[in-house]
Amino acid sequence: MAAKRGRQTVRGMFQSLGVIMVAAGVMYLFIPHDDEAEPVAAKDYRVELVTAQRAAPYPVLAPEGLGADWKATVVSYRREQGDAWQLGFLSPDTQYVSVNQSTTEPKKFVPKVTHSAKDTGRTQTVAGQVWQRWEGPKYDALVRTEGGATTVVTGTASFETLAEMAGALRSKQA
User: Fold this and answer.
1) Any bridge partners for residue 76, and if so which?
2) CA trace torsion 78, 80, 81, 86 (10° rounding)
3) pLDDT tens-digit profile of 62-117?
């Protein structure tokens, strides 16, 4: 009698699994799948930029002259966190590139925004300015300290793309 009961339990388990798989298949069919859809909506960061430029004790940087295929995705200014300015973009090749500035000590600020990148000891000249190259497990970065603030151009993009962003950075005080 016990053997018969064990077979019924196993058979019931497979029947339940079959019902669940059919239900999952039906749900998959009714969920829209549009590979051509725009996955990221671009943000207009002009208001936040003007606010940060008025509040920050350093020249706040933002890119000028980048193509329309660069999409701003993240923008924030946090006075209470070392006057931290962040402006993140999705590059034309769908890599993340972020401009971060702060008056926080560089030894604390740079590893935080680069997710533990380390200074390589090498430099790169971009638009006549010397930047330090940092490399990390998640993000690489170009780092520069000037005017009482540290600027970090970081992300998943190549150093070439990071340099393109760094070269486009300009400051216009509000």
Assistant:
1) 86
2) 10
3) 999 998 899 999 999 999 998 999 999 999 999 999 999 999 999 999 999 999 99
Cα–Cα dist 139/113, whole Å: 9
28 backbone dihedrals φ, ψ, rounded to 5°: -60, -40
pTM of the complete model beyond 0.90: no
Q: In the numeric block, which tokens belong to residue 39?
A: 């996955």
Q: State residue 85 phi and psi, 5-degree precision.
A: -110, 135
Q: What is the pLDDT of residues 111-142, one digit of tens each?
A: 999 999 999 999 999 999 999 999 999 999 99
What type of residue sits at position 39? P
SS3 state at 96: strand
Tokens 């992300």 -> residue = 155
Residue for token pair 């930047």: 131
For the chain, the first-to-last Cα distance in angstroms comes to 85
Q: Which of 24, 71, 66 is CA-nearest to residue 45?
A: 71
